[in-house]
Every structure is written in structure tokens, then in C-alpha cells.
Amino acid sequence: MIANNINLQQLRLFLKVLETKNISEVARVEDLSASLVSRQLKQLEENLGTALFYRNTRAITPTDLGLQFAETATQMLRLFDNAMLKIHNQSEEISGTVRLNVPVLFGQKHIAKHLSELKQRYPKLNIQLTQTDRFVDPMSDSTDILVRINTLIDNTLKAKIIAKQQYFLVASPDYLTEKGTPKTWSDLTALDGLFYRGHTGMLRWLAKIEGKWQPISAQETLVSNNADTLIQATINKMGVLMMPDWAVADELLTGKLVRIFPDVEISSQTSPIHITILYPQTKKTAKNVRAAIDFLVEKWAMGW
């Protein structure tokens, strides 16, 4: 009960008066009235149930118990100041744990290759990465940063849209050499088609033809729920594949795959699809979370 009535200002004023032996001088340095300093000391003595100073008109001197209490007060203030300094340093320095949850293939393609640099930039940052294609609640699943690719943005989360997802029709150069590069949509229907099937079903192929979205297709040759398998099968000359730009960027850059109908807008649905960073709604985003988000945005701004 006593501790509840003692505050840090009382302890600091007590030690300063003990050091200077002069209430007026302490009041001047602290920009307080002498009467306020005196009241704080008296309140401290009442809470402790003992006198800490002998007072007369000429001087103020510590009692024996006052000298003993000074040691305890100094330790208490040192512990508190050290705790505050530790919190301040942690808030200024990027450290602690950041938990990321990202789609499986996106994580393999565009998170994994940047993790080493993220760690080098922030050596005291601990990274926990979960790769899954299911949507998770960041509050119940203890997640700091979600990367999701969808048309919907959860209004209960903060969101930063990174890019609008584009789709490409791709095939290996060798496959097109053997089968011929399609010039019309009817040509496409004669080719082998590789299709992705997720938890919502088969991914549709749509093309914007004369300003309208229209279905396009090829002969169903391979269906898989694993995008990496489909990309590898396409490289191995199995057929034509529709994939997001970020998923086949490396393969296009190296020439393992080439685009078909590059001047036509391709998609899996008529509404825009965005790559978005989601994170919990809080008054102030933790500095380590903000640092990780800014780092990823910086890297992705350079292109896939």
C-alpha cells in the first residue's frame, strides 16, 4: 500500500535535496516552487512513516533512516531508468520478431530471395515466415504481415496495394516451334492446355477482345493445384499455360518461356486482382513491422 502512494518525482526530489541540502536550490533547478518541493518531501515521509530530514531555519540534514533510504531510492530509480532506456533503444532499433504469412509460390519467388538482405539490413530482426494459400486472420493466427492476391480487401486490416496482377499466356520456344505459334484464338484451341485448379476450382482463361472479356481455351492436357509443377511442365514442352506475371517473370527473362498474344490483356476474372500487403489495424504500427513492409515494397518496386 505504501508503494502505491510513492511516485518517482518524490524519489528524485528527495535525492536532489539530500545532495544539495537546499530545498530552494532544488526548486530553482527543477523550475518548481519551494513549497511544492517541501510538500513532496513531506508526503514521502508520511508514506514511509518516518522523517527523512532534520529541519531548522538554517539547514536541512538527513536522518540516519534518510541516508539508508537514499540507497534504496537510488537503486529503484536506476532500475526504472534502465528499463526505460531498454524500451527506448528497442523502439529506435529494428529488432524483435516479425511474422510473415505469404502465398506459397509468391513466397518462393519473391520473398525467399530477399530474406538474406533483410537480415543483413536489420541484424537483430527475427523473421518467421509461413507460406500458405489459405487466408488467415492475423489476430487469431498471430501474424504481423500478410501478403495476399485477391480482389477483396479486408476492411478490418490496413492494406497497401503493391501492384495490379497481370496474367500471361506462355509456352516454351521449343513447343511453339513444334506446334506453331497461334495467330488466332481458334489456333489456340488446337494446342495443349495446362490449367491450374485451386480450392475454388479451375482457373478460367479470359481475354479482353474488342473491349470485352471473352473465354478462351486450349485442349485440357494437364490440371494441377501446384503452380510450380505447371511452370516446369510448360518449360518441358507440355503445352500452353496461363500464369501471373510475377510467377513466370524469371522464366521469361531467361528465355525458358515466351508470351503468346502479348498485346492482349489476359486474366482469370473480369474484376482487377491486386497484390496487397495486409497488417492489423493499430494506432501505431510497430517499427520492426513497418521496416519489413518498407523493405519489401522497396524490393518489389524494382519489378518482379
TrEMBL record:
Q: Which UniProt keywords apply?
A: DNA-binding, Transcription, Transcription regulation
Q: Which GO terms describe its molecular function?
A: DNA-binding transcription factor activity; sequence-specific DNA binding
Q: Which InterPro entries match?
A: LysR-type_TF_proteobact-type, LysR_HTH_N, LysR_subst-bd, WH-like_DNA-bd_sf, WH_DNA-bd_sf
Q: Cite the HTH lysR-type domain residue spans from the record.
A: 6-63
Listed CDD domains: PBP2_CrgA_like
Q: Name one GO biological process term.
A: DNA-templated transcription
- Superkingdom: Bacteria
The family classification in the record reads: Belongs to the LysR transcriptional regulatory family.
The protein here is known as HTH lysR-type domain-containing protein
State the organism's lineage: Bacteria, Pseudomonadati, Pseudomonadota, Gammaproteobacteria, Pasteurellales
